[in-house]
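I hope you will forgive my troubling you with a question about protein structure. The matter concerns a single protein, recorded as an amino acid sequence and a row of backbone structure tokens. Please examine both parts with care and let me know of anything in them that strikes you as inconsistent. Here, with my thanks, is the record as I have it:
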Amino acid sequence: MKKTQHKIVKTAIQLFNKNGVANVRVQDIAVTASISPGNLTYHYKTKKDLMVAVLKYMKVTQKEMFPYQSVIEAQDWIELVQTYLRFQIQFRFFYRDILEISNLVPESRIQYAKQIESVINFNKNGIYLSVGKGFMIPEPHEGHYQVLATNSWAILNAWLTVREVLGEEVANVKRGMNGLLELNYPYFTEKGKEFYHRIKQQIPVMVKSEIDLMEEAID
């Protein structure tokens, strides 16, 4: 991606996050990026073309942030959850405005579906890892942990919408991580409960302030 294209895409993400996809015009992006509308449309003729570039940038960023999802340890899993919550903040417009985006770029439905599948599989792998390590009890019956993994995704997906509507004091990264821990608590073994209490103490240290997260999100 060329330097000017990169600037346009990152500016678009900032404005989409702040104002919502439907409320951002190409002219707004040009003004904020300090370039002429003609220069912007030279690179991206329409808002749809720009959105396609933004979604591609999002996929590249995801691969960079999650390079080793297939092999994880318990501590890595917690850190990856934290990273995923940060990824959601960075591209919060995608989760909040997916209906608008899918109307503009129908192919984005596939990307959204893959996002859901990826997170559910990640959650399920984390559960099976925990069972293998003795942190969680064996699956009560076939398919139950698939539902638990899906419910974990629902928490990850819903907390951001709550945060956008009610503010970071009501829904922040710390509370998102605590929510996942509490959902899994009934399945913890005694060893798992020791891990739970240890992680609960570490979360305030692991999670940076919301201000830092927001500043880092578009750097």
Remarks:
- The chain has a mean pLDDT of 86.
- The chain is about 75% helix and 0% strand.
- Residues 32 and 38 are 14 Å apart (CA to CA).
